[in-house]
Design goal:
Elements: H1 7-10, E1 11-14, E2 19-22, H2 34-39, H3 48-61, E3 75-76, E4 86-92, E5 98-99, H4 102-113, H5 126-139, E6 140-146, E7 158-160, H6 176-211
Parallel strand pairs: 3-7
Antiparallel strand pairs: 1-2, 4-5, 4-6, 6-7
InterPro entries: OrsD, Znf_C2H2_type
Protein name: C2H2-type domain-containing protein
Pfam family, one: OrsD
Length: about 220
């Protein structure tokens, strides 16, 4: 198998933020971590000597790629090339925080803004669900986002303000009242099917009884 020794084969050089972005993983890799990133078995599986050579090439050819970049934007106008684009971003309307799960945004609201959708920690009552969901949707914004590093400093999600027509944010989940209505329809369908199912089962039982001659047990001859 031919080995590629060019840094450009594995990484994209971002000169604006001084990054080496892995083309396969679509996130930036810090120079001290390049050898491990390329050689780990679960990732690229590149031989150690090749990974070392690529790392040296990045060090020599891309001297602007630093170990700890100092610029970490919270938002960009357009996507940063080569970084993965996530359509399911959730942005806090009170600050620049962006995440990708409702659990993360709830935790952020609780810790940073002392805000809770239901104003209590217990499980919401059915009558509170719809109003709570509407309140949550008003407190957040569905966005498209990226992030530079997968962990550590610089791993926060970045809001893309103009992602383009091909990268529209994911739609919000259906409202609680719509979900409840669908559940009720399914439950009613199940209930309506029960009499018919019982009739079919009774008919099958009758046929089995007739097929056995009406005997409920073995006949004993004397």
């Amino acid at each position: 198998m031919a080995q590629h020794y060019s840094a450009h084969h594995y990484f994209h050089h971002n000169t604006e933020y001084h990054l080496a972005i892995c083309k396969r993983c679509e996130h930036a890799v810090k120079p001290p971590e390049i050898i491990r990133h390329l050689s780990q078995r679960k990732g690229h599986g590149v031989p150690m000597r090749v990974a070392q050579r690529v790392c040296n090439m990045i060090h020599d050819a891309w001297p602007d790629v630093v170990d700890e970049p100092s610029i970490f934007p919270t938002h960009v106008k357009q996507p940063i090339p080569a970084l993965a684009i996530h359509k399911g971003g959730i942005k806090c309307r009170s600050c620049a925080y962006v995440c990708r799960t409702t659990e993360s945004i709830r935790k952020h609201w609780r810790l940073e803004h002392q805000f809770s959708v239901y104003n209590h920690s217990r499980k919401p009552r059915p009558s509170e669900v719809q109003a709570g969901q509407e309140k949550r949707e008003h407190a957040m914004q569905r966005v498209v986002c990226q992030r530079i590093f997968p962990y550590g400093l610089g791993s926060h999600y970045i809001h893309i303000r103009q992602p383009g027509p091909d990268c529209e944010p994911a739609p919000p989940p259906p409202r609680a009242d719509i979900v409840d209505e669908l559940i009720q329809q399914l439950e009613q369908t199940y209930i309506d099917s029960q009499p018919r199912r019982q009739t079919i089962q009774a008919a099958r039982s009758t046929r089995r009884t007739r097929g056995s001659g009406g005997r409920s047990g073995p006949h004993i001859y004397k």
